[in-house]
Automatic annotation (TrEMBL):
InterPro entries assigned: ACT-like_dom_sf (IPR045865), CASTOR_ACT_dom (IPR027795), DUF2241 (IPR018717)
Annotated CASTOR ACT domain residues: 65-120
Pfam families registered for this protein in UniProt: ACT_3 (PF10000), ACT_7 (PF13840)
All residue ranges annotated as the DUF2241 domain in the record: 7-58
Protein name: ACT domain-containing protein
Amino acid sequence: MTTRQPVSELSAMLAGMAPVLDRRAWYFEVVHGAPPADAFAVIREDEGVTAILPGERAGQPFARITLTVHSALEGVGLTAAVSSALAGAGIACNIVAGYHHDHLFVPWERRDEALAVLQRLAKAG
């Protein structure tokens, strides 16, 4: 397997986003004790532990869109450009960054519209 080099130039990050929609629903839940093994991410805050979990659960479902570009952690502007484009369409977005990719969580009912916004942004990138 070949590992791509991280991209840090904004126009290259935008052009290479290649957003992919995960068809599962995801939920943000406060957990007590050990987070479930199927958690996508675990965030520890002073107020408690939040896990992002798949499957049918209580609360509002979110869709996960992964930007498949390997954006550099020190790259500037990708988060701002993506969140601004989605905000312009009135779509809420929660971003979780991993080492290789950024993952956007948008309201489930707006997932297809959010994907289209990101695809247009990448094309214009």
